[in-house]
């Protein structure tokens, strides 16, 4: 028979990379993402009996992670403790790095609730209702936060007109 701790350890070992990616998308810092995941995993362990009985354990873990992130945003701790720039990760040769950096930068500029709504809706592929449940808000709030977040991303990622194009218009 598998013990509670063995079951928890197996789940965390399998899902930590996914939780870490979600945390990174929320906070835009790998070190901070690790801290968020550690806090979320600790809370998940405390409530493992309830979590393991849930219909969707991944959804339960994701909800805990997003709530940890939002609680940290409200607390202001992350603003006081900032250490230099993050060390860049390994380079993937096949990806469009400039576009990825632009998107990450634009995502990082979003307010926390908008960022959480966009990540939950488009990276985690949750429905409006599921995202509302995770964020403890109404579906209308998820829709408006998502719409505002997408609008801000579109503005941030809109290509700047070149100088040559500007000279033709004047």
Automatic annotation (TrEMBL):
Domain of life: Bacteria
CDD domains per record: Sigma70_r4
PANTHER family: ECF RNA POLYMERASE SIGMA FACTOR SIGM, RNA POLYMERASE ECF-TYPE SIGMA FACTO
Protein name: SigE family RNA polymerase sigma factor
Keywords assigned by UniProt, alphabetized: DNA-binding, Sigma factor, Transcription, Transcription regulation
Annotated ranges, domain RNA polymerase sigma-70 region: 15-78
Gene3D superfamilies in the cross-refs: 1.10.1740.10, Winged helix-like DNA-binding domain superfamily/Winged helix DNA-binding domain
Location of the RNA polymerase sigma factor 70 region 4 type domain: 102-153
InterPro entries noted in UniProt: RNA_pol_sigma-70-like, RNA_pol_sigma-70_dom, RNA_pol_sigma-E_actinobac, RNA_pol_sigma70_r2, RNA_pol_sigma70_r4_t2, RNA_pol_sigma_r2, RNA_pol_sigma_r3/r4-like, WH-like_DNA-bd_sf
Record organism: Actinomadura fibrosa
Pfam families: Sigma70_r2, Sigma70_r4_2
The family this protein is said to belong to: Belongs to the sigma-70 factor family. ECF subfamily.
């Amino acid at each position: 028979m598998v013990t509670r701790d063995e079951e928890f350890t197996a789940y965390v070992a399998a899902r930590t990379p996914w939780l870490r990616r979600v945390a990174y998308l929320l906070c835009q810092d790998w070190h901070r993402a690790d801290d968020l995941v550690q806090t979320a995993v600790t809370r998940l362990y405390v409530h493992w009996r309830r979590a393991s009985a849930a219909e969707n354990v991944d959804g339960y873990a994701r909800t805990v992670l997003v709530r940890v992130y939002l609680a940290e945003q409200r607390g202001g701790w992350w603003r006081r403790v900032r250490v230099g720039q993050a060390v860049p990760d390994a380079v993937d040769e096949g990806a469009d790095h400039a576009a990825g950096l632009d998107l990450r930068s634009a995502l990082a500029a979003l307010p926390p609730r908008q960022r959480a709504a966009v990540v939950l809706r488009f990276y985690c592929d949750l429905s409006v209702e599921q995202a509302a449940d995770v964020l403890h808000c109404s579906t209308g709030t998820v829709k408006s936060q998502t719409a505002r977040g997408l609008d801000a991303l579109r503005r941030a990622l809109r290509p700047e007109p070149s100088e040559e194009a500007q000279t033709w218009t004047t």
